[in-house]
Amino acid sequence: MADNAVAKQPELTLQKSGVLPALDYWTSAVEAVYWTASKRDNPLMEAASKAQEELQRIEDQIQQLQGAAGANHEAQKQLQALHDRVEAVKRQMSGELTPWERTQLARHSNRPYPLDYIERIFPSFSEIHGDRAFGDDAALICGIARFRDREVLVLGTQKGRDTKQRVYRNFGQPNPEGYRKALRAMKFAEKWRRPIISLIDVVGAYPGLGAEERGQAEAIARNLREMARLEVPFIAVITGEGGSGGALALAVADRVLMLENSIYSVISPEGCASIMWRDSTKKDIAAQALRITAKDILELGICDEIVPEPPGGAQHDYDAAANYLADALEKHLSQLEKLPVKALLDERYNKFRNMAQYFRVEGAGA
Protein backbone atom coordinates (compact mmCIF):
# COMPACT_ATOMS: atom_id res chain seq x y z
CA MET A 1 0.00 0.00 0.00
CA ALA A 2 2.81 2.38 0.92
CA ASP A 3 4.48 1.71 -2.41
CA ASN A 4 1.27 2.48 -4.28
CA ALA A 5 0.85 5.74 -2.36
CA VAL A 6 4.33 6.83 -3.26
CA ALA A 7 3.79 5.89 -6.88
CA LYS A 8 0.62 8.03 -7.05
CA GLN A 9 2.36 11.15 -5.76
CA PRO A 10 2.76 13.78 -8.55
CA GLU A 11 6.26 13.98 -10.02
CA LEU A 12 8.20 17.06 -8.89
CA THR A 13 9.26 18.57 -12.23
CA LEU A 14 11.86 21.30 -12.68
CA GLN A 15 9.05 23.68 -13.63
CA LYS A 16 7.03 22.97 -10.48
CA SER A 17 10.04 23.00 -8.19
CA GLY A 18 10.87 26.54 -9.27
CA VAL A 19 14.38 25.69 -10.49
CA LEU A 20 13.68 26.30 -14.18
CA PRO A 21 11.79 29.59 -13.65
CA ALA A 22 14.69 30.78 -11.49
CA LEU A 23 17.20 30.00 -14.23
CA ASP A 24 14.92 31.64 -16.80
CA TYR A 25 14.67 34.79 -14.68
CA TRP A 26 18.46 34.77 -14.14
CA THR A 27 19.05 34.57 -17.90
CA SER A 28 16.60 37.43 -18.55
CA ALA A 29 18.41 39.58 -15.97
CA VAL A 30 21.77 38.95 -17.66
CA GLU A 31 20.28 39.82 -21.06
CA ALA A 32 18.87 43.07 -19.66
CA VAL A 33 22.23 44.08 -18.18
CA TYR A 34 24.03 43.47 -21.46
CA TRP A 35 21.46 45.17 -23.70
CA THR A 36 21.43 48.22 -21.42
CA ALA A 37 25.23 48.47 -21.60
CA SER A 38 25.27 47.93 -25.38
CA LYS A 39 22.97 50.89 -26.00
CA ARG A 40 25.36 53.37 -24.41
CA ASP A 41 27.61 55.53 -26.55
CA ASN A 42 30.63 53.68 -25.16
CA PRO A 43 29.58 50.11 -24.25
CA LEU A 44 31.33 48.88 -21.15
CA MET A 45 33.56 45.87 -21.67
CA GLU A 46 33.21 45.15 -17.95
CA ALA A 47 29.44 44.77 -18.33
CA ALA A 48 29.85 42.41 -21.28
CA SER A 49 32.47 40.42 -19.41
CA LYS A 50 30.27 40.15 -16.33
CA ALA A 51 27.34 39.06 -18.49
CA GLN A 52 29.50 36.36 -20.09
CA GLU A 53 30.59 35.13 -16.67
CA GLU A 54 27.00 34.94 -15.45
CA LEU A 55 25.94 33.10 -18.60
CA GLN A 56 28.72 30.59 -17.99
CA ARG A 57 27.43 30.01 -14.45
CA ILE A 58 23.93 29.46 -15.81
CA GLU A 59 25.36 27.01 -18.35
CA ASP A 60 27.10 25.09 -15.55
CA GLN A 61 23.81 24.89 -13.62
CA ILE A 62 22.00 23.62 -16.72
CA GLN A 63 24.59 20.85 -17.19
CA GLN A 64 24.17 19.75 -13.57
CA LEU A 65 20.37 19.72 -13.88
CA GLN A 66 20.51 17.76 -17.14
CA GLY A 67 22.32 15.02 -15.26
CA ALA A 68 19.77 15.12 -12.45
CA ALA A 69 16.79 15.13 -14.81
CA GLY A 70 17.66 11.66 -16.07
CA ALA A 71 14.97 10.18 -18.33
CA ASN A 72 12.49 13.00 -17.75
CA HIS A 73 12.08 14.04 -21.39
CA GLU A 74 9.98 17.13 -20.62
CA ALA A 75 12.64 18.44 -18.22
CA GLN A 76 15.41 17.67 -20.73
CA LYS A 77 13.47 19.53 -23.42
CA GLN A 78 13.04 22.60 -21.19
CA LEU A 79 16.70 22.60 -20.22
CA GLN A 80 17.80 22.25 -23.85
CA ALA A 81 15.64 25.23 -24.82
CA LEU A 82 17.26 27.31 -22.07
CA HIS A 83 20.71 26.09 -23.16
CA ASP A 84 20.00 27.18 -26.76
CA ARG A 85 18.89 30.59 -25.48
CA VAL A 86 22.11 31.06 -23.52
CA GLU A 87 24.22 30.03 -26.52
CA ALA A 88 22.34 32.48 -28.76
CA VAL A 89 23.02 35.35 -26.35
CA LYS A 90 26.72 34.41 -26.18
CA ARG A 91 27.00 34.37 -29.97
CA GLN A 92 25.28 37.74 -30.31
CA MET A 93 27.52 39.26 -27.64
CA SER A 94 30.63 38.02 -29.44
CA GLY A 95 29.44 39.35 -32.80
CA GLU A 96 28.82 42.88 -31.50
CA LEU A 97 32.22 43.50 -29.93
CA THR A 98 34.12 46.61 -30.99
CA PRO A 99 37.79 46.36 -32.07
CA TRP A 100 38.91 47.61 -28.66
CA GLU A 101 36.70 45.07 -26.88
CA ARG A 102 38.20 42.30 -29.01
CA THR A 103 41.63 43.62 -28.04
CA GLN A 104 40.66 43.23 -24.41
CA LEU A 105 39.43 39.69 -25.10
CA ALA A 106 42.70 38.87 -26.88
CA ARG A 107 44.51 39.96 -23.69
CA HIS A 108 42.12 38.20 -21.30
CA SER A 109 44.09 36.74 -18.39
CA ASN A 110 42.18 33.43 -18.59
CA ARG A 111 42.59 33.02 -22.34
CA PRO A 112 44.39 29.79 -23.33
CA TYR A 113 48.09 30.28 -24.05
CA PRO A 114 50.18 28.20 -26.49
CA LEU A 115 51.09 25.64 -23.81
CA ASP A 116 47.37 25.05 -23.19
CA TYR A 117 46.89 24.26 -26.89
CA ILE A 118 50.04 22.11 -26.98
CA GLU A 119 48.74 20.07 -24.04
CA ARG A 120 45.46 19.36 -25.86
CA ILE A 121 46.53 19.10 -29.52
CA PHE A 122 50.14 17.91 -29.60
CA PRO A 123 50.90 14.77 -27.56
CA SER A 124 54.45 13.65 -26.85
CA PHE A 125 55.76 17.22 -26.89
CA SER A 126 59.55 17.23 -26.37
CA GLU A 127 60.87 20.73 -25.73
CA ILE A 128 64.07 22.11 -27.28
CA HIS A 129 66.19 24.49 -25.18
CA GLY A 130 68.89 27.03 -25.97
CA ASP A 131 70.22 28.83 -29.03
CA ARG A 132 73.76 27.34 -28.74
CA ALA A 133 75.16 30.85 -28.60
CA PHE A 134 73.95 32.71 -25.50
CA GLY A 135 71.31 30.78 -23.58
CA ASP A 136 67.70 29.69 -23.33
CA ASP A 137 64.62 31.92 -23.42
CA ALA A 138 61.57 30.77 -21.46
CA ALA A 139 59.33 33.28 -23.28
CA LEU A 140 59.62 31.27 -26.49
CA ILE A 141 59.02 27.53 -26.37
CA CYS A 142 59.65 25.05 -29.16
CA GLY A 143 59.78 21.31 -29.50
CA ILE A 144 58.98 18.22 -31.54
CA ALA A 145 55.51 16.73 -31.07
CA ARG A 146 52.96 14.52 -32.77
CA PHE A 147 49.89 15.88 -34.52
CA ARG A 148 47.39 13.36 -35.88
CA ASP A 149 49.88 10.65 -36.84
CA ARG A 150 52.63 12.97 -38.06
CA GLU A 151 55.63 14.54 -36.38
CA VAL A 152 55.74 18.34 -36.37
CA LEU A 153 57.74 21.17 -34.85
CA VAL A 154 55.71 23.44 -32.58
CA LEU A 155 56.76 26.99 -31.70
CA GLY A 156 54.96 29.20 -29.20
CA THR A 157 55.26 32.32 -27.09
CA GLN A 158 54.22 31.91 -23.45
CA LYS A 159 53.14 34.76 -21.14
CA GLY A 160 52.55 33.02 -17.80
CA ARG A 161 49.52 33.01 -15.50
CA ASP A 162 50.70 34.39 -12.17
CA THR A 163 53.43 36.85 -11.17
CA LYS A 164 56.08 34.16 -10.72
CA GLN A 165 55.40 32.61 -14.12
CA ARG A 166 55.22 35.99 -15.84
CA VAL A 167 58.61 37.00 -14.51
CA TYR A 168 60.05 33.61 -15.53
CA ARG A 169 58.53 33.95 -19.02
CA ASN A 170 59.55 37.64 -19.26
CA PHE A 171 55.85 38.47 -19.73
CA GLY A 172 55.91 36.57 -23.02
CA GLN A 173 58.38 38.94 -24.70
CA PRO A 174 61.18 36.99 -26.40
CA ASN A 175 64.84 38.04 -26.32
CA PRO A 176 67.18 37.53 -29.30
CA GLU A 177 68.20 34.12 -27.97
CA GLY A 178 64.54 33.09 -28.14
CA TYR A 179 64.28 33.92 -31.83
CA ARG A 180 67.64 32.26 -32.51
CA LYS A 181 66.46 29.16 -30.65
CA ALA A 182 63.32 29.14 -32.81
CA LEU A 183 65.41 29.43 -35.97
CA ARG A 184 67.67 26.57 -34.84
CA ALA A 185 64.57 24.42 -34.27
CA MET A 186 63.09 25.38 -37.64
CA LYS A 187 66.31 24.41 -39.43
CA PHE A 188 66.24 21.09 -37.57
CA ALA A 189 62.64 20.52 -38.71
CA GLU A 190 63.61 21.37 -42.29
CA LYS A 191 66.47 18.89 -42.22
CA TRP A 192 64.16 16.06 -41.14
CA ARG A 193 61.22 17.18 -43.31
CA ARG A 194 58.89 18.03 -40.40
CA PRO A 195 56.07 20.59 -40.84
CA ILE A 196 56.23 23.67 -38.61
CA ILE A 197 53.34 25.11 -36.57
CA SER A 198 53.77 28.43 -34.79
CA LEU A 199 51.37 29.56 -32.01
CA ILE A 200 51.69 33.29 -31.41
CA ASP A 201 50.44 35.35 -28.47
CA VAL A 202 52.94 38.14 -27.92
CA VAL A 203 52.72 41.86 -27.26
CA GLY A 204 56.07 42.33 -28.98
CA ALA A 205 59.76 41.46 -28.86
CA TYR A 206 61.50 42.47 -25.63
CA PRO A 207 62.80 46.07 -25.99
CA GLY A 208 65.31 46.01 -23.10
CA LEU A 209 68.90 47.23 -23.27
CA GLY A 210 70.35 43.73 -23.03
CA ALA A 211 68.16 42.51 -25.89
CA GLU A 212 69.28 45.35 -28.11
CA GLU A 213 72.94 44.75 -27.22
CA ARG A 214 72.59 41.08 -28.18
CA GLY A 215 71.09 41.98 -31.57
CA GLN A 216 67.30 41.89 -31.29
CA ALA A 217 66.78 43.52 -34.70
CA GLU A 218 69.27 41.20 -36.40
CA ALA A 219 67.66 38.11 -34.86
CA ILE A 220 64.21 39.14 -36.09
CA ALA A 221 65.49 40.08 -39.56
CA ARG A 222 67.36 36.80 -39.92
CA ASN A 223 64.24 34.85 -38.97
CA LEU A 224 62.21 36.71 -41.60
CA ARG A 225 64.71 35.82 -44.30
CA GLU A 226 65.16 32.20 -43.31
CA MET A 227 61.45 31.48 -42.82
CA ALA A 228 60.83 32.61 -46.41
CA ARG A 229 63.26 29.88 -47.55
CA LEU A 230 62.09 26.94 -45.43
CA GLU A 231 61.34 23.91 -47.63
CA VAL A 232 58.65 22.42 -45.35
CA PRO A 233 55.00 23.35 -44.75
CA PHE A 234 54.66 26.18 -42.25
CA ILE A 235 51.47 27.36 -40.50
CA ALA A 236 51.35 30.33 -38.12
CA VAL A 237 48.41 30.90 -35.78
CA ILE A 238 47.65 34.15 -33.92
CA THR A 239 45.95 32.85 -30.76
CA GLY A 240 45.80 36.12 -28.81
CA GLU A 241 47.93 39.19 -29.47
CA GLY A 242 50.07 39.40 -32.57
CA GLY A 243 52.28 42.34 -31.75
CA SER A 244 54.60 43.94 -34.30
CA GLY A 245 57.93 42.39 -35.33
CA GLY A 246 57.85 40.11 -32.30
CA ALA A 247 54.96 38.23 -33.90
CA LEU A 248 56.10 38.56 -37.51
CA ALA A 249 59.43 36.92 -36.59
CA LEU A 250 57.46 33.67 -36.18
CA ALA A 251 54.83 34.18 -38.86
CA VAL A 252 56.34 34.23 -42.38
CA ALA A 253 54.33 31.12 -43.12
CA ASP A 254 52.44 29.38 -45.92
CA ARG A 255 49.20 29.85 -43.99
CA VAL A 256 48.43 32.47 -41.35
CA LEU A 257 45.39 31.68 -39.21
CA MET A 258 43.77 33.90 -36.59
CA LEU A 259 41.45 32.94 -33.77
CA GLU A 260 38.16 34.80 -33.82
CA ASN A 261 39.04 37.17 -30.96
CA SER A 262 42.73 37.63 -31.70
CA ILE A 263 44.44 40.77 -33.02
CA TYR A 264 47.42 41.38 -35.33
CA SER A 265 49.01 44.80 -35.53
CA VAL A 266 52.24 46.72 -36.06
CA ILE A 267 51.60 48.70 -32.85
CA SER A 268 49.27 48.48 -29.86
CA PRO A 269 46.17 50.74 -29.83
CA GLU A 270 47.56 52.55 -26.77
CA GLY A 271 50.88 53.16 -28.52
CA CYS A 272 49.16 54.40 -31.67
CA ALA A 273 46.90 56.77 -29.71
CA SER A 274 49.89 58.15 -27.80
CA ILE A 275 51.74 58.90 -31.05
CA MET A 276 48.82 60.19 -33.12
CA TRP A 277 46.88 62.20 -30.53
CA ARG A 278 49.26 62.37 -27.56
CA ASP A 279 46.45 60.73 -25.60
CA SER A 280 46.46 56.99 -24.82
CA THR A 281 42.81 57.14 -23.67
CA LYS A 282 41.82 57.29 -27.36
CA LYS A 283 42.88 53.68 -27.70
CA ASP A 284 39.37 52.63 -28.82
CA ILE A 285 39.56 55.04 -31.79
CA ALA A 286 43.05 53.77 -32.62
CA ALA A 287 41.93 50.14 -32.44
CA GLN A 288 39.23 50.82 -35.02
CA ALA A 289 41.52 52.84 -37.30
CA LEU A 290 44.32 50.25 -37.21
CA ARG A 291 42.00 47.45 -38.43
CA ILE A 292 43.56 44.86 -36.15
CA THR A 293 40.74 42.34 -35.70
CA ALA A 294 40.69 38.95 -37.39
CA LYS A 295 37.87 40.05 -39.70
CA ASP A 296 39.83 43.12 -40.80
CA ILE A 297 43.05 41.14 -41.31
CA LEU A 298 41.22 38.57 -43.42
CA GLU A 299 39.70 41.31 -45.60
CA LEU A 300 43.18 42.81 -46.09
CA GLY A 301 44.49 39.45 -47.30
CA ILE A 302 47.03 39.08 -44.50
CA CYS A 303 45.52 36.00 -42.87
CA ASP A 304 44.00 33.00 -44.62
CA GLU A 305 41.28 31.85 -42.24
CA ILE A 306 39.52 32.87 -39.02
CA VAL A 307 39.30 29.98 -36.56
CA PRO A 308 36.04 30.13 -34.57
CA GLU A 309 36.01 30.21 -30.79
CA PRO A 310 33.45 28.92 -28.28
CA PRO A 311 30.63 31.40 -27.51
CA GLY A 312 31.98 34.20 -25.34
CA GLY A 313 35.62 33.49 -26.18
CA ALA A 314 38.23 30.74 -25.93
CA GLN A 315 38.65 31.40 -22.19
CA HIS A 316 35.26 29.75 -21.54
CA ASP A 317 36.13 26.35 -23.02
CA TYR A 318 39.77 25.39 -23.62
CA ASP A 319 38.91 21.97 -25.06
CA ALA A 320 36.44 23.31 -27.62
CA ALA A 321 38.87 26.05 -28.68
CA ALA A 322 41.61 23.45 -29.11
CA ASN A 323 39.33 21.23 -31.21
CA TYR A 324 38.45 24.12 -33.54
CA LEU A 325 42.14 24.92 -33.96
CA ALA A 326 43.15 21.30 -34.50
CA ASP A 327 40.59 20.88 -37.28
CA ALA A 328 41.82 24.04 -39.03
CA LEU A 329 45.44 22.92 -38.75
CA GLU A 330 44.61 19.51 -40.19
CA LYS A 331 42.80 21.04 -43.16
CA HIS A 332 45.62 23.41 -44.13
CA LEU A 333 48.43 20.98 -43.36
CA SER A 334 46.84 18.33 -45.57
CA GLN A 335 46.73 20.83 -48.43
CA LEU A 336 50.31 22.01 -47.98
CA GLU A 337 51.78 18.50 -47.72
CA LYS A 338 50.62 17.79 -51.28
CA LEU A 339 52.64 20.66 -52.78
CA PRO A 340 56.14 20.13 -54.21
CA VAL A 341 58.88 22.23 -52.62
CA LYS A 342 59.13 24.71 -55.49
CA ALA A 343 55.39 25.38 -55.52
CA LEU A 344 55.43 25.75 -51.73
CA LEU A 345 58.19 28.36 -51.84
CA ASP A 346 56.64 30.22 -54.78
CA GLU A 347 53.24 30.44 -53.09
CA ARG A 348 54.80 31.67 -49.84
CA TYR A 349 56.83 34.31 -51.68
CA ASN A 350 53.85 35.54 -53.69
CA LYS A 351 51.64 35.60 -50.60
CA PHE A 352 53.82 38.15 -48.83
CA ARG A 353 54.96 39.96 -51.99
CA ASN A 354 51.37 40.82 -52.87
CA MET A 355 50.43 42.20 -49.46
CA ALA A 356 49.69 45.93 -49.04
CA GLN A 357 49.77 46.71 -52.77
CA TYR A 358 47.46 49.47 -53.91
CA PHE A 359 47.27 50.50 -57.56
CA ARG A 360 45.26 53.01 -59.51
CA VAL A 361 43.75 51.37 -62.56
CA GLU A 362 43.72 53.85 -65.43
CA GLY A 363 40.96 53.76 -68.03
CA ALA A 364 41.72 52.15 -71.36
CA GLY A 365 41.21 55.45 -73.22
CA ALA A 366 43.43 57.52 -70.88
How would you explain this protein's 3D organization?
Strands 1, 2, 3, 4, 5, 6, 7 and 8 form an eight-stranded mixed β-sheet that branches. This protein is α/β, with parallel strands linked by helices and 366 residues long. The chain has two domains: 11-96, no CATH class; 106-353, 2-enoyl-CoA Hydratase, Chain A, domain 1. Helix 3 runs parallel beside helix 5, helix 6 (99-106) packs across helix 14 (283-290) and helix 9 (176-191) runs parallel beside helix 11. The chain is built from 17 helices and eight strands. Mean pLDDT is 82; it is low at 1-12. The chain has helices at 2-8, 14-17, 19-38, 45-69, 73-95, 99-106, 114-121, 163-168, 176-191, 209-213, 216-229, 244-248, 269-277, 283-290, 294-299, 318-336, 341-353, and strands at 126-127, 140-146, 151-157, 196-202, 234-243, 255-259, 263-265, 305-307.
Largest sheet: 8 strands, mixed
The gyration radius over C-alpha positions equals 24 Å
Determine the CATH superfamily of the largest domain.
2-enoyl-CoA Hydratase, Chain A, domain 1
Give the overall shape, derived from the CA principal axes. globular
Helix content: 40-55%
Question: What's the average pLDDT?
Answer: 82
Low-confidence stretches: 1-12
What is the CATH topology assignment of the largest domain? 2-enoyl-CoA Hydratase, Chain A, domain 1
The domain count comes to 2
Q: What's the tally of helices? A: 17
- Secondary-structure class: alpha/beta
* CATH architecture descriptor text of the largest domain: Alpha-Beta Complex
- How much beta, percentage-wise? 5-15%
CATH class of the largest domain: Alpha Beta
Find the count of extended strands (DSSP E, 2+ residues): 8
List the secondary-structure elements in sequence, H or E.
Answer: HHHHHHHEEEHHEHHEHEEHHHEHH
**Separation of termini?**
101 Å
